[in-house]
Amino acid sequence: MVLLVEDDPSVREGLGLALRRQGHDVRAAGTGEEGVERLRESRPDIVVLDIMLPGIDGFETCRRMRVQAEVPIIMLTARGDDFDVVAGLEAGADDYVVKPVEPRVLEARIRAVLRRTVPEPSAVERHGSLVIDRAGLQVLKDDVKVALTPTELKLLLELSRTPGRVLTRQQILEAVWEHDYLGDSRLVDACVQRLRAKIEDVPSEPGYVHTVRGFGYRFGPR
Amino acid sequence: MRSLFRGLRPRLMAAFLLLTLLGAVAAAGATYATARNLLLEDAQNRFMNPLVEDVRIYAPRLTVPPRQQDLDDFATYLRGSAVVLFEGRRSRSGPDQSFIPAQMRESLKTSRTVLWQRRTDLPHPYVVIGIPLLHADGTATGVEVWSLTSLDAPQRAIDSFATAAWVGVSLVLPLALGLALLTARGVLRPVRRLGAAARALGSGRLDTRVDDRGSDELADLARTFNRAAEQLEATQAASRRFVADVSHELRTPLTAMSAVTAVLDEDAGSLPEDTAVAARLVSAETRKLTRLVNDLMEISRFDEGRNVLELDDWDIGTAVRDTLAARGWTSAVDAELPEGVVGRVDRRRLDVVVANLVGNALKHGGAPVRVAVRPDAIEVSDSGPGIPPDALPHIFDRFYKADTARSRSEGSGLGLAIAWENARLHGGTITAANAPSGGAVFTLRLPW
């Protein structure tokens, strides 16, 4: 089920129609407050969230939703401004599309974000104080379950698959976001930041997800 | 030669030189003339006055008509420097009388005063003096005293004066030239700065301003220029803001329309024929409009300087190959993509540039389209008719279409402009040219 938060009635109706045609169950909200409310009631699989909203804006709505649930959020940015994109990603969005968006683009992004991580029949891995269970799709830190969004989980599984090896942002984008071509590498950076905040002892001095300047990221406990 | 005097500097210098020359020549000439007269007069007087005085003293002793002895005595009294004549006879001593001009001789017959003449018919200048002896009642006695003296010494002095004057002129001329250069620079530097600023303004750098300190006419001109530039900049900013605002306002309705185009496309098959045509038309035009608005927004972001580079090291050949593959152009394009050309570029922007250039070549050029990665450039060439020469300077202009008959449907008209802006953001260039063998060649050079 898709929760669509968009103030413009025509856009809401148009996107709602398009998404329904793609086989999604769509709930719509006209304001950020209403969106947060709907999220609580209806537990959607994904949120499509406009940035320009009356009342609390998209960034704040995104933050409030993040507190509530690990639901994937795709931002609809009306400007395509770098500032908006960065702010949106910092607020916790998993991905973004720029208005006016072609329905197939939005659909591809939604499908990519929604694609469940497939459980793998592999042993539980232990990296330092981090336990990654690929079969159970869980991550424990100091034996406590870490609440990761689907994108964060996918990112961690992807990075930890080849400890010690450097993955470029582009490789990560293709593997995690399924951006077939030239996605925005800031998506990776923003998601890594969020992931670090959850799994690192000191996020500013990462012990698991290391930045390799100019190339990408490398997973490996110290 | 004419072009040599067209510039302000040569003209100023010529004017200065001429003025100096005229002034110096006039001053030297006046000095020369005055000095010459004074010197000559002085020389004459020094010679003439004693002679006249001697004649005046001796005259009462002379019997008239004089005998030959009287003439000789007179001449001896005058120390042989003069010849004394009386009606065809002459004193034995004194210079030969051939020096006396006939006309002067005639005049002296009736003259009651001393006659003198400066003559230059000989190699050295000289003065001829004729003194008539008069009776007490003032009538002529017929006795004449003639003498001549060289003006060599004063002439030499005058000549050295003239030389000095010329030397002075020749010394002043370089000074005048230097002064002319200084003045020219003082005038020309601000003029040149204004020229450069005007060119910069003309090439689109509307934030160009010139130093307008000072209170002379040039500073006035500079202030006028700055005001004009400010107005131009404000006007352009307003119109760009307007485009950005319009594009922005178009986005929301376009998002709604764009969202439902797929529905129109899918269901068109089951609609009555006219309605289906209408639905497909609306759908297709909505997509075009979407692209146009997206391109307009992109251009607006460039205009407002809101686009930033995300530089990274990329293998250029691979990047171009990916661009072609992502658009399904791999088989349509003849690509020469060596590996190992690594550049520090914004890959998304490089993709936009290459896609726009190749897309443009595929649409407007003729097959085969070639893409070649060189160590320092990317070349996109086609085998079409090339770009008309008058279109070449405008090929990167917004909404410029080389072929006016070309239909609107082939793109937003902003593709090449966006490519150009992206290259510029990298600090690089795109140039368009026609290959000798025909066909257009676009060369992208980025500082990688």
Automatic annotation (TrEMBL), chain A:
Coiled coil: none annotated. It holds the Pfam family Response_reg. The modification 4-aspartylphosphate is found at D50. Keywords: DNA-binding, Phosphoprotein, Transcription, Transcription regulation, Two-component regulatory system. CDD domains: REC_OmpR, trans_reg_C. Residues 122-221 form the OmpR/PhoB-type domain. GO terms for biological process: regulation of DNA-templated transcription. Residues 1-114 form the Response regulatory domain. This is DNA-binding response regulator, OmpR family, contains REC and winged-helix (WHTH) domain. It comes from Lentzea xinjiangensis.
From TrEMBL, chain B:
Keywords: Kinase, Membrane, Phosphoprotein, Signal, Transferase, Transmembrane, Transmembrane helix, Two-component regulatory system. Residues 1-26 form the signal peptide. InterPro entries: HAMP_dom (IPR003660), HATPase_C_sf (IPR036890), HATPase_dom (IPR003594), His_kinase_dom (IPR005467), HisK_dim/P_dom (IPR003661), HisK_dim/P_sf (IPR036097), Sig_transdc_His_kin-like_C (IPR004358), TCS_sensor_his_kinase (IPR050428). It is found in: Cell membrane. The keyword Transmembrane applies. It catalyses: ATP + protein L-histidine = ADP + protein N-phospho-L-histidine. Pfam families: HAMP, HATPase_c, HisKA. Residues 245-448 form the Histidine kinase domain. Its EC number is 2.7.13.3. It is an enzyme of class 2 (transferase). GO terms for molecular function: phosphorelay sensor kinase activity. Residues 185-237 form the HAMP domain. Its main location: membrane. GO terms for cellular component: plasma membrane. PANTHER family: SENSOR HISTIDINE KINASE TRCS, SENSOR HISTIDINE KINASE YKOH. This is histidine kinase. It comes from Lentzea xinjiangensis.
